[in-house]
Amino acid sequence: MLIAILVGFAISRGPEKPRVAFLNEVPKDTSVSVGGDTLDVVNARNQLCHRIDCIRVSSRKEAIDKVRSGDVLGALVLPANLAEKINSLASLTPEQPKVEVIVNEEDPLKAQIVDDRISSLLTEANLLIARRVARTGSDYLGLILNGGHLNFLGQKFDVLGLRTSARVLQALRPAVPRGALRQSLDEVVRFATLARDNLDLAGPLLNAVAEPIKVDKHVINGSAPPLDIFAISVAATFTLMFVTLLLVSGSLALEREENAFARLTRGLVSRLELLAEKVVLGVGVGLVVTVLMLAGLELFVDLDWARFGLWIVAILAGGAAFAAAGAAIGAGAREVRAASLLAFMLALPIALLSLVPSGAVGPGLYDVIKVIAALFPFKPALDAMTAGLDEAGPSLGAALLHLAILILAYGTLARLALRRFTAL
């Protein structure tokens, strides 16, 4: 149980350099200038691809296809007008630039990895740009306070400034009732009009400082359960796997090692009945241990106990598949130590391979991993457990069908292996 919990919560740490499809539609040699400073676009691209494994694509469709197929963890699209909108942030008519992030949320770990990594990169970029925009905003405030010249839409305005306005108003104060100093009064009125019109820009400017670049996120293949629920599902499935697999394989091998199998099958029970008894034993013990574990984890994470019936279905189906696999291993090993070692050596690596998300490795290697994972009960048992714990999980029906096929396959292998059980 301790190993299962550690593995379950350790999977929240993703690969060092996740594979991300990268589409850069910004024209070449485009300069980005914010607050009078020119940003090094080439260096920014290099830093981005140093943090993630950039898989260059030529179109948005190609990026979506790679995300959907699992070739990459996600996609980042930089639109053609990105530089233009970044340059506008320090102007009086700022436009918020957006980048597009495409993710496949069929796997909660995959979705979390992409969100965390890209969010981290954009946070750094936003902080850099926000500093430049804030400095430009400070210049505008200084212009309003002290006066000066303002170039806007090709026209040049003389801004009086609050300090000078105060002096003018002070001078006009005794004279206004008699109608004097009309020209100075007109200057004050013009400044007040300009200030009133341009202070409306404070809102967009402050928004630009808060979040210069916004993420436009698109999700492919629906949603995934929360990562903590997924971690609990992994921990519970690991527990169910080890308890059931080791118990059934070890107890069946023990019958052979102590010469009890031959005596029992001479007339007391049939081989099939003895095999079924071991499977039922493993499923029963696995059910009790797994439910107790989920109840203990309730202290740390809120679980939906209204779905308790689905938990039981997932545990029973997964436990039966692990028990059938354990029976095949125990019948083939015929010794307790060999059966236990073989069960542990097979189960742990295959279970860990089953947790590898698409896009974390190359497509060819991932296809091999999918085949291996499909031949062992851990992956469908994990899908069933996740579906039982959260409605956003995978399809429970598909997972149960997969487990039923594996139960029949491993049960057949165990039955065939029992034919040689008493001969050696």
Question: Total strand count, please?
Answer: 9
Number of domains: 3
**Structural shape:** elongated
* Percent in helix: 55-70%
Number of continuous helical runs: 16
Please characterize this protein's 3D structure.
By secondary structure, the chain is an alpha/beta fold. The chain has helices spanning 2-10, 41-51, 60-69, 82-88, 108-146, 162-172, 182-198, 202-210, 227-257, 260-264, 271-297, 308-333, 336-354, 363-374, 378-389, 396-417, and strands at residues 19-24, 32-34, 37-39, 53-56, 74-78, 98-104, 148-152, 155-159, 214-220. The strands form 3 sheets. It has a 5-stranded mixed sheet with strand order 4-1-5-6-9, sandwiched between helices. It is elongated and about 125 Å long.
Short description:
This protein is α/β, with parallel strands linked by helices. The protein is built from 16 helices and 9 strands.
